[in-house]
Amino acid sequence: MTAPRIPLPASREELDTAQREVWDKVVAGPRGTVIGPLRAAIHNAELAARWSAMGEALRFNTSLPKRLSELAICVTGRRWSSQVEWWVHARAAVEAGIAPGILDALRAGRPPAIADPQEAVVYDFARSLHHDGRVPERTYQAALDAFGVKGVVELTALIGYYTMVSMTLNAHGVPLPNGEADPLDAPTTGLFPLPERIA
Predict the structure, then answer these.
(1) Which terminal CB of the chain, N or C, has fewer other CB atoms within 10 Å?
(2) Do 109 and 152 belong together in one domain?
(3) How many CA atoms lie within 13 A of 12 on its CB side?
(4) Domain that residue 87 falls in
């Protein structure tokens, strides 16, 4: 675990008026607490407010079932070896119905065995987007067939948003809460490879 590179407010008493307004709105919303990247973003109150609104829309208010959103977030967190993102969302994914074995494989860099067709589509879509910066036509059409236009737009935005979250957490060294140990082995060089799943 590394020390943060910037001051990370731990309470609203450390904030100015504009920042406190954002803090209070976040605490009153579905997150219930200010953790992770918002502790960095709150240095710019307007950025933090818009960040929080987008995050709430993508995490809590899309047409995608929660388990699928959490799987996409976990693929993204693992791609960037984002300790805080993985720590938060791997637990949420299991609670939402993702098999622990899928997450164990992702954590270890093994091809995950995914039986559920929708989960397989989400994994393939997220993996392709992270691996190549694009989605092959076959994978895109499978996502379109499974989730419709709205769902594909939401899935893409979710992956992009949590990429920004991962980069923010990693760049600023945002630590895990309460001295928790890092759950991921970060790669020593390059980017964490996301293997193709077991068909």
Answers:
(1) C
(2) yes
(3) 13
(4) 66-167
